[in-house]
Design brief:
mainly beta; Neuraminidase; Immunoglobulin-like; eight-stranded antiparallel β-sheet; seven-stranded antiparallel β-sheet; globular; Glycosyl hydrolase; hydrolase activity; CBM6
Length: about 1100
């Protein structure tokens, strides 16, 4: 699924074809047809389902064959591979044409398909995929299609091109391919860069060597010597090699460049298409970054783009966005701007990243054709309807052919109009141009197409040889298959429309004899014609039943397909099929330890376990069950990491985007069985959604009455307003496990009212009741807290019911925050991981980027891996001697069967504090007792793998040997300022990590604790909220006037700062001079130790 303001996803994933089909279909007349006066109504179109459901996998892209068959791909998994699937209109059935083994981490996998322009004679199909290979690469290969068997010959693979990639972090793979009239192949490659870290949703240009390279897009999109972040153009030769066509961005032989590059400065060019009838003009959708709002000294609110290129060029990323709007050259070490990049002028930006291997002086930048923007596009508001996340997808010019004999071709009205699709916003629209020419004209009008037709995340489209629009929909999943996924045709019909067939079964797998009850409920005819039913249970072309809801017993083993065809009596019909597996049972997988809809805090640790049982395979070892975690943003997700069902602990990290964005985590457990004789393997999975503690009131599922009001001082810039008695909103799928109270940020120019939280309906059990006071004005906010009563661990719809006396508006609600542990936990030691960011050494490192430092970088998606031998070790230097009481080891699939944990004062003499010979992977959370400066994990036997040892995380917890006393608890505190609300200074010394102080949004700011008398201060622990300081000093004073600095930094990175200091004073102050975000400074806890 695409990743965006963000695929992903997201979302997300990958590619496109299109022009190849048009070339092999009927010759198209280039002259425009007479335009109709008005667009045809949606009622003139029909959406016909060709395939759908979980059996599709994770659908990515399609190509229509000249004879009307459709090849489409699913992204696949590392364990099960990815499929090329073929829909055959002659039989209304889908079969598997090829399965490829993949390294499908994050957004990689099988992500692109296209047909050679001469497919009708050579039968060549090109696939863009991620092979299992060392070193890591992505690859485009050619395969030959067998028209007799409808399969792709795996042995025919001819590798065309491959290039290095990185898979330590998510995201942005792109993967789309298309052809021009000269048989040149264009292929889109994403920037292979993570949008998180300290980028704040802006340009990911973090040049610090201490940070993972995948936080710096200058190494890819801005690098003239790298194919990533580009749309590349090559000419495949018949012998399997390729040559470089003339007219690319850099001539062959130019130093420090790749001659394949056609456009650079791309982030995630998700779908590309070339208009062969219009000078090979290139169009594409470009998924943009995540910033929910402009940051004055950093950059604009995120742009998502549709682009047009009549020749090669630099489209700006990561230096410019949208209509050539500049980002600031951010110094991540100093947390300060260096100056705005040049965008749109005669000189391009300078790439001086230490990771750049290409030219420093880049070509001038070009702006987008049309664009969306977070918060609304002033220039193109039609793209924001409906609003929400942004994931531009396909862009293709429709060419009407009056000579094409087809009853389903789109009408002349759309001739020479640019048709665009949007994954997140679920629409298809047309772009019109001032001179009627998409190549040379300026866009003027954007109008909806098939408005009102239900779309479920369109991920690819293509006009077929019959002039109909073929559409692939991803469904509602996140990195998974989904029942709502589908392959469709959108036909234009001048007369009557075809009926829609809907078929369900009470079971789709099991042992023979397998009795199945079928249903046609939901089948319908848009013209109201009566329907008749024809069921073919065994795909032999013979009608087995004409009942609406028949039953059938399968007696032979195999993969069956039951097909329902409905007829409306006018010669029109619709068909749908249901896969039935006889001889194998689908595994049952459950995610344990956390409920669906559970609530977490940013920075929490959350542990997910998963278990599977299978009728044929028995009880499955937890190490064979896969747990995948994705960070959701609006309607897509970014994969953050994966582990095993034995226990995968992930850290939710800092808040990913602005408060205007809906953010959440998706946790999925899955197991694919071994299959059975004559049947395909089956996958059983369960997916959960987790919600953050702080919710914006305007992020509802359904709204009954209130209005969403824009207001600058509201969190996220909006709030619920004009709330009247008896109105309500609904939130879907929430568990209040571990929640003790809820706090609402409200305002009222009147007398206020009651805000009631209820389970499952507006009259359901009340679980919290907040009395909203009058605040003296609609923009005068206050926070009110109430206990949560009668909560259970179950998952419920949560209704907020608004009541009060009188008429008219009662109060406004900006946000609400749940208080309590929820499903997350703060690591011991005040959240202090002693190993994070500390120096690490290891016995060996596997070739590639899985370096030892990844084990202590706080990122659950990066890892260390050793060579393939025993023994191996990894050691962290804590910098001082600690009493170690807990060690947590988060194993990747290559775990240690036999290993020990050791401590040492000098990295020489070692004492074992834990050992095992029965390790089973997952997360080993060990309670230990030992003292030392160095902590080592020493593996002596690898577990069930031919690989080495591999760790996602090595966490160490404990206390200083000095045994200093906590001096600051509940002492008086003062601060330079306090943000409006309840985040008062005293919260930092109350011992609770659910209350905090927050300052106004300006530099500098300070907070001071009075210890009551002069003390020797030896340690200060700062537990930062998301709004942390990158530059600050720790200071002591005897008189609260003259200050001595005992610790300072200009490279703070949030989280928990555990500082060894030496000084004395009655007063201890944190003096912040540079913020990391557009907000102020915010601390959960400020602990001072000493004697």
């Amino acid at each position: 699924m695409p990743r965006s303001t963000r695929p992903r996803l997201a979302a997300g994933l990958a590619l496109m074809m299109l022009a190849s089909v048009a070339a092999t279909a009927v010759t198209v007349v280039a002259d425009p047809a007479p335009a109709a006066a008005a667009p045809p109504p949606t009622s003139s179109f029909e959406k016909v389902k060709l395939d759908g459901g979980l059996s599709m996998g994770e659908p990515i892209e399609l190509s229509v064959l000249p004879d009307g068959k459709v090849l489409y791909i699913n992204r696949g998994t590392s364990s099960g591979g990815g499929q090329v699937r073929l829909y055959n209109p002659a039989t209304s059935s889908t079969t598997v044409a090829l399965t490829l083994q993949l390294d499908a981490r994050f957004e990689d996998g099988l992500i692109g398909i296209t047909l050679h322009p001469q497919f009708a004679t050579n039968r060549w199909v090109y696939l863009f995929y991620s092979p299992v290979a060392t070193p890591l690469v992505n690859r485009i290969s050619r395969f030959t299609f067998n028209t007799s068997t409808n399969v792709l010959d795996a042995a025919s693979e001819t590798k065309l091109i491959e290039w290095p990639t990185e898979r330590r972090l998510c995201c942005h793979s792109a993967g789309s391919m298309t052809w021009d009239s000269n048989n040149n192949l264009y292929f889109a490659v994403g920037d292979n860069t993570n949008s998180g870290g300290d980028s704040a949703g802006m340009a990911p240009i973090d040049e610090r060597t201490s940070r993972d390279a995948q936080y710096d897009a200058q190494r890819t999109s801005g690098n003239t010597n790298d194919l990533r972040g580009k749309i590349n153009r090559i000419h495949p030769e018949n012998n399997g090699t390729y040559t470089i066509p003339t007219g690319n961005l850099f001539p062959v032989g130019t130093a420090n460049t790749r001659p394949e590059i056609y456009t650079m400065g791309n982030r995630n060019p998700y779908r590309i298409w070339v208009d062969k009838q219009a000078n090979n003009t290139l169009y594409w959708g470009e998924v943009g970054p995540d910033a929910g709002a402009t940051i004055a000294n950093r950059g604009p609110a995120a742009y998502d783009e549709y682009n047009r290129a009549t020749g090669p060029g630099n489209y700006g990323w990561p230096y410019c966005g949208g209509p050539n709007v500049a980002y600031n050259d951010w110094d991540f070490a100093a947390n300060a701007p260096r100056g705005w990049f040049p965008c749109g002028g005669s000189t391009g930006p300078v790439n001086n990243s230490p990771r750049n291997t290409g030219l420093q002086q880049l070509p001038p930048t070009k702006g987008a054709l049309v664009w969306e923007q977070h918060g609304g596009s002033r220039e193109w508001p039609a793209l924001d309807n409906p609003g929400g996340c942004g994931s531009p997808n396909h862009a293709e010019v429709y060419h009407y052919n009056p000579n094409l004999n087809s009853t389903v071709k789109w009408p002349a009205y759309y001739d020479n109009k640019l048709i665009i699709t949007e994954y997140c916003r679920n629409w298809i629209k047309e772009v019109q141009f001032d001179n009627g020419n998409p190549v040379t004209g300026n866009p003027t009008i954007i109008e909806p197409v098939v408005s009102g037709m239900q779309l479920v995340h369109p991920i690819d489209m293509e006009f077929g040889p019959d002039g109909s629009l073929y559409l692939l929909e991803y469904g509602n999943g996140y990195f998974s298959g989904d029942a709502a996924a589908g392959l469709y045709k959108i036909n234009y019909v001048a007369g009557g429309r075809s009926p829609t067939a809907v078929a369900t079964a009470n079971r789709d797998n099991g042992l023979a004899p397998l009795a199945v009850t079928f249903s046609s409920a939901g089948s319908s005819d848009p013209d109201g014609d009566p329907l008749t039913y024809a069921w073919d249970f065994d795909s032999n072309g013979t009608t087995d039943s004409t009942a609406a809801n028949p039953s059938y017993t399968y007696t032979t083993v195999g993969d069956k397909r039951a097909r329902l065809t409905v007829n409306d009596g006018t010669g029109r019909s619709g068909s749908v099929q249901i896969p039935i597996v006889v001889g194998n049972n689908r595994p049952v997988t459950t995610v344990g330890s956390i409920p669906n809809g559970g609530i977490y805090g940013w920075g929490d640790n959350v542990t997910a376990t998963a278990a599977s049982t299978d009728a044929q395979d028995g009880t499955i070892a937890c190490g064979n069950v896969v747990v995948r975690v994705a960070l959701g943003h609006q309607e897509h997700a970014h994969e953050e990491g994966q582990g095993t069902g034995c226990g995968f602990t992930f850290n939710t990290g800092p808040i990913h985007a602005g408060l205007d964005a809906v953010q959440f985590f998706v946790v999925r457990g899955s197991y694919t069985d071994s299959g059975a004789a004559g049947t395909v393997p089956l996958t059983g999975e369960q997916q959960l959604t987790l919600w953050p503690k702080q919710w914006q009131a305007e992020h509802y599922v359904t709204l009954n009455g209130p209005k969403v009001v824009d207001q600058a001082a509201a969190e996220g810039g909006k709030r619920l307003g004009d709330i009247q008695n008896g109105e309500s909103v609904r939130h879907h799928g929430v568990s209040l496990k571990g929640i003790t109270s809820v706090k609402a940020r409200v305002s009222s120019a009147g007398t206020g009212g009651v805000l009631s939280f209820r389970y499952d309906s507006t009259t359901g059990p009340e679980v919290a009741r907040i009395i909203v006071p009058g605040t003296g004005g609609w923009d005068n906010y206050t926070e009110v807290t109430a206990p949560v009563t009668r909560p259970d661990d179950g998952t419920h719809d949560l209704y907020l019911v608004f009541t009060g006396t009188g008429t008219g508006a009662l109060y406004d609600v900006d946000s609400y925050t749940f208080v309590g542990g929820g499903v997350g936990s703060t690591p011991p030691g005040g959240g202090q991981d002693l190993a994070q960011g500390r120096p690490v050494t290891a016995s060996s490192t596997e070739a590639g980027a899985n370096v030892a430092g990844n084990a202590v970088d706080g990122n659950a998606a990066t890892r260390w891996s050793s060579l393939y031998a025993d023994p191996q070790w990894i050691t962290v230097d804590l910098g001082a001697s600690y009493n170690v009481n807990r060690v947590r080891i988060n194993w990747e699939a290559a775990f240690g069967r036999a290993y020990r944990v050791e401590v040492s004062p000098d990295n020489s003499a070692w004492t074992s504090i834990f050992s095992t010979t029965t390790g089973d992977g997952g997360a080993d959370d060990l309670n230990v007792t030992g003292t030392g400066r160095y902590v080592r994990v020493y593996g002596t036997q690898r577990g069930l793998t031919q690989y080495g040892y591999s760790l996602w995380d090595l966490n160490v917890y404990g206390s200083p040997v000095s045994g200093a006393t906590l001096l600051s608890r509940n002492r008086p505190v003062t601060a330079s300022s306090t943000e409006a609300g309840a985040n008062v200074p005293a919260n930092v010394v109350d011992g609770s990590t659910t209350t905090r102080w927050s300052s106004l949004y300006a530099d500098p700011q300070w907070i001071t604790v009075d210890l009551g008398q002069t003390r020797n201060v030896s340690r200060v622990v700062l537990n930062w909220e998301t709004a942390y300081a990158t530059a600050y000093q720790v200071q002591v004073s005897n008189d609260n006037s003259s200050w001595t600095t005992v610790s300072s930094t200009t490279t703070g990175n949030g989280g928990v700062d555990d500082l060894a200091v030496s000084g004395s004073g009655r007063y201890v102050r944190i003096n912040g001079t540079a913020r990391a975000t557009q907000w102020g400074y915010s601390l959960w806890e400020f602990d001072v130790y000493g004697s």
